[in-house]
Design brief:
Shape: globular
Radius of gyration: 31 Å
Number of helices: 29
Oligomer: single chain
């Protein structure tokens, strides 16, 4: 058996390594399926009793010979001349070494073949570690996790501990992964700056609701890490404040590894504080056509925040708006090339975002000259008039009417896109403000899983966005709990109630009652029973649908059964709901943006101003207005958020943070209908 393994590896060496790796990855699912089948059908081999302690020791010490000059191929060649016992050890070492050399296909091949041999307990554990490690490197985190669970050791080894952390992070279990890393560093401390930077990046990736869950865990140095994260997230936008807070933190955590980050962090903060403020800002939004209401509402929010900044610090920033629905992208680019803005906000619509990204990729001097020439033949664009009553004074547009500069033309303007592109990757100067509804569903699933619920029923409107949100919720629920929630897609109209009854299995109870009445020929007094295996309901519904669904659920819940708590997305909340509607929705708990929750808005002055001017505006437009406020306030902050990943912005649309791809996402707050009012709820 050993000779055949070595022969196979030798044969693989005759092919280009890249070809081997690609071929292996192509057939990896089939290969793994065969692995499981063969292991299930194989004959159990008795473990040899005469295994020497020296061999076991060699297996345990393989982790400390990583710097050996021997390559994996050398170890395979050595195995040819050794006895079967020592050859097995060398092949196990070779599999581990292949992983270090990033020859994952070879490592997995050896590990699979070696698993067929009679192995000692220590050898089997080490081989399973090799398999788990190789699968992790191949990006197959769930399979890697399952293999890691088969390692049976009283005390986890160093590699087992680090693999546990790495695999859980790759699976998306960030909170668990951080706890695993801290447990690892408690046993194996590291002063390597790269290790500390990576751990810091994991904390920077945490959402507020994940931080809340993590704060309830017990792990080495966790409290100090959470304190460090909080100080930077709150004060990272101001160098003086950040320096003061970090000095206090250092006094209490003098030996903490994050101290190694502080000098560079303060220098980055200082450098960014010294960057001149933007003077010319151009906003690209639709101000005509079918989407004009969205663009004008967004414009109103941007100008409200702009005017507030102007009143507070006499900022001389200039702002103008270009209608993306009435101006071709070629003309827009010509105007931008002539203006040379310091910052661009927008576009808003996906097709405009894609066109803008394509237009702002590097261009030749010829194309730049062509754009400037086209602009010189056009009438300069004036700032779009702002018709709303909130702002009566127009921004000064003098800077925008200047003739195009004749020197170097740029197209790498820092840009905050107001939508995610359908295709393509953001250029280094591009940032994207994501309003994806899937983020809300993911947060809800995570938070509800931490409340101790076991099994949920998802009621979702039968639409594209409803299916996206339901699937996102289900995926996060599966990841956190290991179970799959029941999803019921309901139609609109009269059939909606039937879907609710079906989801609660009330229809089955009705059938049993009907059969019993027919059998007994008696007029029985009965109560239907709903299913008992669900302990919460989550629904994705519009306000009108929620008004119907909530009573349907109440009516179809047995009077002798426990009340099933009902949760919903922000789509179910309407600021225009009257007292009767709110009374009907009593008990419904939902997520929404701070702007629409009483007492949670970041800027109460802007909230009261908007309420006075637009008292009857829909919640959907209120969310767009809040997005406009946040878009303006993010303008001077995005470069800092990229340079200091822990930095957060408390916005009107939620707690905002930027990921490694320069996409800004939001975290929501929770509210609950109670009688005729909405009550703020602390869920996390």
């Amino acid at each position: 058996m050993l000779s055949s393994i070595i022969l196979s590896i030798t044969f693989m060496d005759q092919l280009p390594v890249t070809k081997i790796t690609l071929s292996f990855r192509s057939f990896l699912p089939l290969f793994l399926g065969s692995l499981i089948l063969l292991q299930g059908c194989g004959t159990q081999v008795d473990q040899p009793k005469e295994t020497s302690q020296a061999t076991n020791k060699t297996i345990e010490e393989i982790e400390v010979i990583e710097d050996s000059e021997l390559t994996a191929d050398d170890l395979v060649n050595l195995a040819e001349d050794e006895s079967s016992v020592q050859a097995t050890v060398l092949l196990l070492q070779a599999a581990a070494k292949y992983i270090q050399e990033q020859k994952i296909a070879k490592s997995l091949f050896i590990s699979y073949e070696v698993s067929k041999l009679p192995l000692t307990a220590a050898q089997k554990n080490y081989n399973q570690l090799n398999l788990a490690h190789g699968l992790y490197e191949a990006g197959l985190s769930e399979l890697a996790h399952k293999k890691l669970l088969t390692v049976n050791r009283t005390t986890p080894s160093k590699r087992q501990l680090i693999l546990t952390a790495q695999i859980n992070v790759q699976r998306g279990l960030l909170v668990t992964g951080i706890v695993n890393y801290l447990d690892y560093y408690q046993q194996f401390p590291s002063s390597d700056i790269n290790d500390i930077i990576y751990l810091n990046s994991l904390f920077a990736s945490l959402k507020p609701w994940q931080i809340s869950a993590l704060s309830k865990q017990k792990a080495y140095d966790l409290d100090a890490w959470l304190s460090f994260t909080e100080q930077v997230s709150l004060f990272g936008n101001n160098h003086v404040s950040l320096q003061s807070q970090l000095q206090k933190w250092q006094e209490n955590n003098k030996s903490h590894p994050a101290n190694l980050l502080i000098t560079d962090l303060q220098q980055v903060s200082l450098n960014l504080d010294n960057v001149p403020a933007f003077k010319k800002v151009v906003v690209l939004i639709p101000l005509s056509g079918r989407q004009a209401i969205l663009g004008k509402t967004l414009q109103a929010g941007i100008l409200a925040a702009y005017q507030q900044d102007l009143a507070l610090d006499n900022n001389q920033q200039q702002i103008m708006f270009i209608d993306t629905n009435n101006t071709p992208m070629v003309e827009i680019m010509a105007n931008l090339t002539a203006i040379q803005p310091d910052f661009v906000i927008g576009p808003l619509l996906k097709n405009h975002v894609d066109n803008y990204l394509a237009a702002t990729t590097p261009v030749t001097d010829l194309l730049v000259e062509q754009a400037v020439t086209e602009q010189s033949n056009n009438t300069p664009i004036d700032a779009q008039p702002f018709a709303q009553q909130a702002i009566t004074e127009q921004p000064n547009s003098a800077l925008f009417s200047s003739t195009a500069p004749q020197t170097v033309m740029r197209r790498d303007w820092p840009t905050l896109l107001l939508n995610l592109p359908e295709k393509g990757i953001l250029a280094p100067q591009h940032y994207a403000f994501s309003m994806l509804p899937e983020d809300e569903a993911t947060q809800a699933a995570f938070s509800l899983s931490k409340k101790g619920f076991k099994q949920g029923l998802i009621l979702s409107q039968n639409s594209a966005i409803g299916k996206r949100m339901a699937n996102s919720f289900a995926q996060q629920w599966q990841l956190q709990t290991g179970s799959t929630p029941t999803i019921v897609y309901y139609p609109t109209g009269k059939k909606m109630q039937n879907s609710v009854k079906g989801g609660l299995d009330v229809n089955l109870s009705d059938e049993r009652i009907f059969l019993l009445r027919n059998r007994l020929q008696e007029n029985l007094k009965t109560e239907t029973r709903n299913r008992r295996d669900i302990d919460f309901i989550y629904m994705f519904a519009t306000p009108d649908q929620a008004k119907l669904l909530k009573p349907y659920i109440d009516v179809n819940t047995s009077p002798f059964a426990n009340v099933i708590p009902i949760y919903a997305s922000s789509r179910s909340n309407s600021d225009a709901a009257d007292r009767n509607t709110r009374r009907d929705l009593t008990g419904l708990t939902f997520t929404d943006i701070p702007w629409l929750l009483s007492g949670k808005a970041v800027n109460p002055d802007l909230t009261s101003q908007a309420k006075q001017i637009w008292p009857n505006r829909s919640s959907a437009l209120e969310r767009i207005y809040a997005m406009g406020i946040d878009s303006w306030q993010l303008t001077p902050k995005v470069e800092k958020m990229q340079a200091i990943p822990l930095l957060r912005h408390k916005g009107e649309t939620g707690d905002l943070q930027m990921n490694n791809n320069r996409v800004i996402s939001r975290s929501f707050y929770w509210g609950r209908y109670r009688s005729s009012r909405i009550q703020n709820v602390k869920m996390d």
